Amino acid sequence: MQAPVSQRTLELFNDSLERCRKSGDLAGLFYERFVAEPTIRAYFANTDFERQKRMLTTSLYMVMGAAAGTDEGKRHLEQLAEGHARLGIPADLYASWLTSLVEAAAALDPRFNSEVAQAWRDVLLPGIEVMLCTPAVRNCVRENRIFEIPNIIETSRALGMQTLDSSIKQL
């Protein structure tokens, strides 16, 4: 099976994540930025942030695993998607989530550059697409047919599907 993202991209992401964790509280800085928006803050009204930060850190590693094609990572991602769907998280918040996370990484990683930023996006975007996806997209992820996802998204525009990149461009 071919990994959805290159080994180099996975290494750049992992190395940056490790540097961020050594430099400071990545999850804490992320949540400071992310919940600064009032519409987002409401979703976290009764949140135990210490627990939330631990879950985010675990999820970053699992999403990296999913991007590498591991079954454990893909299962974790599907569970995250189901949980977020039950919470009714609007699709437009995922762009803010990614922006806040990449900004937090940039602030903590002393070797952060445009290549590292792209690695963060390349690793996290497929996970976000799963969070926003239909059963057809989830099936592609489960069966490691990631290359089919752009076609599914394109043919499902009438259902409101679009890539995160397209959504960010509209902002």
Task: Please give a structural write-up.
The chain is mostly helical and 171 residues long. Helix content is 72%, strand content 0%. The protein has ten helices and no strands. It has helices at residues 7-23, 26-34, 38-41, 49-68, 71-87, 93-108, 114-131, 135-142, 149-155, 164-170. Helix 1 packs across helix 6 (93-108) and helix 4 crosses helix 7 (114-131). The longest helix has 20 residues, at 49-68. The radius of gyration is 15 Å and the shape is globular.
Report the helical percentage. over 70%
Structural class: mainly alpha
Using only C-alpha atoms, the radius of gyration works out to: 15 Å
- Shape descriptor reads globular
Distance between the termini: 36 Å
Report the uncertain regions.
Answer: none
Mean pLDDT: 85
What is the β-strand count? 0
Oligomer: single chain
Order of helices and strands: HHHHHHHHHH
State the major sheet: none
Keywords:
171 residues, mainly alpha, globular
Short description:
Helices cover 72% and strands 0% of the residues. It is mostly helical.
Strand-helix topology:
Blueprint lengths: L6 H17 L2 H9 L3 H4 L7 H20 L2 H17 L5 H16 L5 H18 L3 H8 L6 H7 L8 H7 L1
